């Protein structure tokens, strides 16, 4: 996401795209299927498991977590959003 900001500025987020090194507190870019397919979302990992992650991704509701797949850009089901 280099040069994507106004005046060629870099993205203000530093993402971890390596699912093998995911840890609580990492910032990730995640995807949502359904009508939100193709839009990028940003969140913070609050739980890392062998087969899924839990993401805090709603700044308006910090207690809301989304379950995502454990891959470089986790996939969240639209029904969770």
Number of strands: 5
Strand residue percentage: 25-35%
Helix/strand order: EEEEE
Strand order of the largest sheet: 4-3-2-1-5
What does this 3D model show about the protein?
It is a single chain. The chain has 81 residues and is mainly β. It has no helices and five strands. It has a five-stranded mixed β-sheet, with no helix packed on it. A hairpin with a 3-residue loop joins strand 2 and strand 3 (52-56). It is globular. The two termini are 24 Å apart. Residues 1-5 have low confidence and may be disordered.
Describe the protein's topology.
Elements lengths: L26 E6 L8 E8 L3 E5 L8 E5 L5 E2 L5
Parallel strand pairs: 1-5
Antiparallel strand pairs: 1-2, 2-3, 3-4
What tags apply to this protein structure?
81 residues; globular; disordered N terminus
Concise overview:
The protein has 81 residues and is mainly beta. 0% of the residues lie in helices and 32% in strands. Strand 2 and strand 3 form a beta hairpin.
């Amino acid at each position: 996401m280099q040069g994507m900001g106004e005046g060629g500025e870099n993205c203000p987020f530093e993402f971890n795209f390596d699912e093998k090194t995911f840890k609580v507190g990492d910032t990730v870019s995640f995807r949502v299927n359904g009508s939100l397919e193709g839009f990028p979302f940003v969140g913070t990992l609050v739980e890392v498991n062998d087969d899924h992650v839990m993401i805090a991704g709603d700044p308006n509701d910090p207690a809301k977590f989304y379950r995502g797949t454990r891959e470089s850009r986790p996939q969240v089901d639209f029904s969770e959003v």
